[in-house]
Amino acid sequence: MEIVSVISLWFIPVLIGFILLYGTFKRVPTYESFVEGGKEGIKIAVSIIPFLVGMLVAISVFRASGALEYFMDYIRPGLEAIGVPPDIVPLAIIRPISGTAALGMTSDLIAVHGPDSFVGRLASVLQGSTDTTFYVLTVYFGAIGIKKMGDALKVGLLADLAGIIAAIIVVTLVFGSV
């Protein structure tokens, strides 16, 4: 395992050094290019802030309004009938919106149910089986000015749904049901 530690420790510095040497060999002004990249990075970071704030406010309003709890009470009987723990649904809903909020929910589920419980395992697999679709669309598409994102939203949410279903099936098959 020591070789892996050495490789992981030196990989990034060697890669950066290689890029700088290659750029110098090709007569690219490496320092000036680095400074220009830094300026562009700061501009992008500043342009992302309004989209991030809007998304975080929307998440807070959804949770604080009680809409999440109302929705959970409505679908609980159907979920219990098919063997899906209702505790996992808020995670499945929040995961496409915010990775940080989903990580917090996963931590809470693991703390309440335990890491070796069906819910804990399902939450962990679900966390890795889906993506933050709304985050990607609002932040990255918004930062570069893409206005028409309907198809990307449909495909992203469909991929999230497939990830949720696959997580439930795989965890059920590997670890048994609730």
Describe the structure.
Residues 46-147 form the Nucleoside transporter/FeoB GTPase Gate domain. It comes from Cytobacillus oceanisediminis. It holds the Pfam family Gate. The chain crosses the membrane at residues 7-24, 44-62, 155-175. It is a single chain. The protein is mainly α. Helices cover 82% and strands 0% of the residues. It has two domains: 1-51, no CATH class; 66-175, no CATH class. The mean pLDDT is 85.
Give the helix/strand layout:
Layout: H1 2-25, H2 30-64, H3 67-82, H4 89-94, H5 99-113, H6 118-129, H7 133-144, H8 150-175
Helix pairs in contact: 2-7, 5-6, 6-8
By helix and strand content, what is the structural category?
mainly alpha
Helix content: over 70%
User: Could you tell me the number of beta strands?
Assistant: 0
Mean pLDDT: 85
Amino- and carboxy-terminal Cα gap: 37 Å
What's the tally of helices?
A: 8
**Approximately how much beta-strand content do the residues carry?**
under 5%
Return Rg in Å: 22 Å
Q: What are the secondary-structure elements, in order, as H or E?
A: HHHHHHHH
Number of separate structural domains? 2
> Which stretches of 5+ consecutive residues score pLDDT under 50?
none
Shape field: extended
Major sheet summary line: none
Please sum up the structure shown.
This protein has 178 residues and is mostly helical.
Sum up the structure in keywords.
178 residues, mainly alpha, 2 domains, 82% helix
